[in-house]
Specification:
Strand content: 35-45%
CATH architecture of the largest domain: 6 Propeller
Keywords: Cell membrane, Membrane
Low-confidence stretches: 19-27, 300-308
Pfam families: SdiA-regulated
Number of helices: 2
Number of domains: 2
Subcellular location: Cell membrane
Strand order of the largest sheet: 2-3-4-5-9
InterPro entries: YjiK/CarP (IPR009722)
CATH topology of the largest domain: Neuraminidase
């Protein structure tokens, strides 16, 4: 009987391991295992039970706004959503059904990747290529704004790498902006003092790295939203095709899968870029090329069958 030489055995083992890693990456197997595991854990009272959510609106096309919408922010005063386009410098206001209500042309910013509603007519825009935040007002009915002279803050601690900040949200209870960095390293930072900035006046800025993503298992961070009722953070990952809920200690509580066959989806969500949560706990997701999704809380169901 012919026997493998030790060197050939190691070569075969290495090839098998590389093939397994390739399959894991291509089909997001680690994310599937993570989702199934989290779905079967005992839930804390503050968990949103994301695994039970059901797709209410799926892949609703948003026409006439380019192909690269990014981020979502829920305006609790108008009960509308705001998103941004970076190829065309627009802020877009959407209905909760994904219909375009208004397009606002923005001058004075080069690469918008995020938007957060602070209160009233005040918003913060995220400028990715300059690693900066811009505080501005978007008044009702306006169709253009110029942010050239508006208060801005450069987050220089990660300015040397090209994996920039991808999402932003406002935590009203603690008066802080939550900013998500995509990768290398993945981070959520909290910024205090900027939302109160007055043009021409010095700012008292405090920045801290949050525990929520110190050991985050998501492949990347595409967007962030804050649940005021629980004080928890929801993170969106495009590469993992998943929304994950974390408590203040950084513990994973639950996940919502964005794959075909889960959460009632007939197709996987492509390149998810924006995430928001409404007061009724509906979750809104936007993806490139400009598809809109709504997930509503649902009854407990069994874990779906994964399909590529």
């Amino acid at each position: 009987m012919r026997r493998f030489m030790p060197g050939k055995r190691w070569s075969l083992l290495l090839i098998c391991m590389m093939a397994l890693l390739a399959l894991t990456y291509a089909y997001r197997l680690e994310a599937i295992v993570w989702h199934v595991w989290s779905s079967n854990q005992d839930k804390q009272e503050t968990s949103m039970r994301l695994a039970d959510y059901v797709a209410e609106r799926e892949a609703i096309a948003i026409p006439g706004v380019g192909q690269d919408l990014s981020d979502l922010s829920y305006n609790h005063e108008t009960h509308t959503l705001f998103t941004v386009s970076n190829a065309k410098p627009w802020v877009i206001e959407l209905s909760l059904e994904g219909k375009v209500l208004r397009k606002i042309h923005v001058t004075g910013i080069s690469d918008m990747e995020g938007i957060a509603h602070i209160g009233g007519n005040r918003f913060v825009l995220l400028n990715e290529d300059r690693h900066s935040l811009v505080l501005t007002e978007i008044n009702p009915g306006v169709e253009s704004i110029d942010v050239t002279s508006e208060p801005s803050l450069t987050l220089a601690m990660y300015a040397h790498d090209n994996k920039g900040f991808e999402g932003i949200d406002w935590d009203k209870e603690q008066g802080r902006l939550l900013v998500a960095k995509e990768r290398s390293p993945k981070r959520v930072i909290a910024v205090r003092g900027f939302a109160d900035a007055v043009p021409g006046q010095p700012m008292n800025i405090q920045i801290e790295k949050l525990q929520e993503t110190v050991s985050c298992g998501l492949r990347d961070l595409s967007a962030i939203t804050y649940d005021a009722d629980s004080g928890h953070i929801l993170l969106l990952s495009d590469d993992s095709r998943m929304v994950a809920q974390y408590d203040q200690q950084g513990k994973l509580l639950d996940t919502l899968a964005l794959w075909r066959g889960f959460q009632g989806l007939t197709r996987s969500v492509p390149q998810a870029e924006g995430l928001a949560i409404g007061p009724d706990k509906r979750i809104y997701v936007i993806s490139e090329p400009n598809l809109f999704y709504v997930f509503r809380p649902g009854n407990p169901t069994s874990v779906g069958e994964f399909k590529v």
